[in-house]
Amino acid sequence: MPRARFSPLAGITRSDQPWVTWSIMALCVVVYVLQMLPGSTVTNTLAYVAAFPWAASEPWRMITYAFVHGGLAHIGLNMLSLFLFGPLLERSLGRIRYVALYLVSALGGAVAVLLLSPGGSVVGASGAIFGLLGAVFIIQRRMGGNTSQLLVIIVLNLAIGFFPGTNISWQGHLGGLVAGAAVAFVYLRTRNRSQRPLQVVLVGLVAALLVVITAIRLVVAVLA
């Protein structure tokens, strides 16, 4: 995917150095090291459990889970994926939009786990990374680029989660993918500088919708 294919968003590029991507990767590594310390409670504090009352009383877990990993191979594969796709989007979108995309995608992954696998637990950046993949796909499609290879990557990675014994949250991947695609669609439809306020509102609405869905699901769980 040559960088030039992101040209419709080039007008909002802010930096050639993907400092946000490097920072996310560094934070994930630091958290992982802390997880490995004897007696560490980092995993139990930051991991996401899609069950009441945790999802209601400790909502930060719906974001912090994306910085926690379950093993060396887990973090290694996620950081490789982030290294490959993150800089492309960060350079095209700018840092603030990229952060918003990443966090909303992570939230989308958590909401999907809450809806599709209630009571399940999840860790890892892959939900947010699937959001980046969804964003790249939407952008490439809008530009008329060839998305067949990317589509194969997305489908294969989603399918792996259905194999017995893989211990992969396809729900989190799917939620992140949908949320990331939605944010990318907003970005593409509000590229003009005059549309910046509308862009902020629409991205906020995507995040707010995820929060509302979470609240409704938790209320249903309490009343059930």
Provide a quick synopsis of the model.
The chain is mostly helical and 224 residues long. The chain has helices spanning 19-36, 42-46, 54-57, 61-64, 72-93, 95-116, 126-142, 148-160, 170-189, 196-223, and strands at 48-49, 121-122. Strands 1-2 form a two-stranded antiparallel sheet.
Topology:
Blueprint (H helix, E strand, L loop, with lengths): L18 H18 L5 H5 L1 E2 L4 H4 L3 H4 L7 H22 L1 H22 L4 E2 L3 H17 L5 H13 L9 H20 L6 H28 L1
Antiparallel strand pairs: 1-2
Helix pairs in contact: 1-5, 5-6, 5-7, 6-7, 6-9, 6-10, 7-9, 9-10
Describe the model.
With 224 residues, this protein is mainly α. The chain has one domain: Rhomboid-like fold, CATH 1.20.1540. Helices cover 68% and strands 2% of the residues. It contains ten helices and two strands. The protein has a two-stranded antiparallel ribbon.
Keywords:
single chain, 224 residues, mainly alpha, Rhomboid-like fold, two-stranded antiparallel ribbon, 10 helices, 2 strands, disordered N terminus
